[in-house]
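Reproducibility note. Readers wishing to regenerate the assembly model reported in the main text can use the exact inputs given here. Chain order matters: entities are listed in the order in which they were concatenated for prediction.
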Amino acid sequence: MLKSHSFAAVLLILFINFGPLPAFAHEAWLLTQEEVQMLSVTPVPEIFFNRKALSVLAIVSATLVFSALTLAQLGRATEDRLFAPLVRASSDLGPLVLRLGLGLSIGLSALGALPRHGTARWTKPTLFVPDMQFSLVQGWDWLVPIALITAIGLLLGLVTRLAALLVIALALAGTLAFTGSFLWFYALHFIAPALLLIFYGGGRFGCDPLIPLGIPPRSFGNPAVILLPVQIMTGIGFATIAICVKFLQPMLLIAILNHGNLNFLNMPQPVAALIMMTIELLAGCLFGMGLLIRPIAAFLIGAFTFFAITLQESPFLHANLYGLCLFFLMNGGQRSSLERVVSRSERRLLRRARP
Amino acid sequence: MISPSFHLCGLASLLACAPIAAIVVWLPEAPQLRGLPNSLFLTLPEDQPEIQFSLQTFRAPLGDWILQIEAQGFLFTESCGEVTEVGAIGHAHVYVDGQKVGTAYQPVFALGHLNQGPHKITVSLRAEDHRVLARGTWRGSYNRILLFTVPSSGLDPG
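Running the prediction on these inputs yields the following structure tokens for the assembly.
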């Protein structure tokens, strides 16, 4: 019954033992040389060593998660009713948002339009994210035209499934070109939407239905086959970043909060950073476990937008995640076995309660 | 009677928060918190001789500007990749007025044409995997700034 939850939780705990993987962190995209210099002389704040404070945070987290899960169960019928039209539309709109998100982030990166701080726009092509500059690794420039062709295919919805396969190939090539951390920190969030596109195809709004090659524009089989691994993959991506880049390197996030002059209810920045890390980790765990999919997708869209505005980042930096979250917001994802068990139990109770 | 939903929601909450519980136990002891963020910095050992590091600019006969990076105790290399042994070896990232203009794999770097007026050149020593070289935990990184002005006459500012 709870095999999938235990699996996800054990998997996430195992990640803790990896420690931070060396090289590259997306927090460093925005930092200026002066901020990096400041970071090199600033020790980690005491709160991260304070077991009592961390325990309070864990208890509050568990209470909030319990409340959210209970509320979600109570509001399940309303949610299903409200989102029913979107679920129906998701087989056409879902592939569209996934394609646009992936195509924009991969294409603009390959054109050098999304560089890291201090690098002129359009000068250094990158793979998926600003840190992965092709100029930093020798002999991998040939991936740039492939990334551009992939992006065009995705944006037009032309041979979408092939383009999605190319995204996975690029992710694997990127892991070889850069480091293993590329796969855990970034590639999972590109492979996940690509898998959805392989399953669902380009949808009604792509060019695939126009070409006479017999490419099926619609999905095939039971969506659960693909939704569950995609949810686990997406969850693992967020949880890995939360543990390896945030919890184990908290000064990076604090430096970003300083960089953007972000103020959360006058909270000390280390406390705000700790809460943000916890939320990211919880979001990853819950998503991976197939719980609260829609609320988390909506929350993540809000969070990406908030940070894009406050840090003056390009929203296209997270276009792949916007696409993925919008898809899950519409579709609702595959409910975990827990939610199905709860629904069954409640139905049984209701039947018994009836005269 | 408590509904089975509550039991299962409770169980799910505990499972979802298991990584947070692991962090409560483990984080205060984590060695990673006792050093610089290692995704950004490569920290040189404490017994590593200090790198003596300075910058100079001069004008080439054709009018372009050249940057000379004098870094004693640091070895420039063209090789980039995974760091297998921690040491003062790597390259330098060069910034002009806050924009990265290139990577110096040798102590001499061509800045090219610079417009007349004041400029700020920043050089950051990097490891072979492009991480910032740090001189030990919380003792700073190897970063130098040179402020200079390109004169209207085009003469070397000295």
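We highlight two features of this model. Chain B touches chain A through 55 residues (CB under 8 Å). Helices of chain B lie at 4-16, 18-26.
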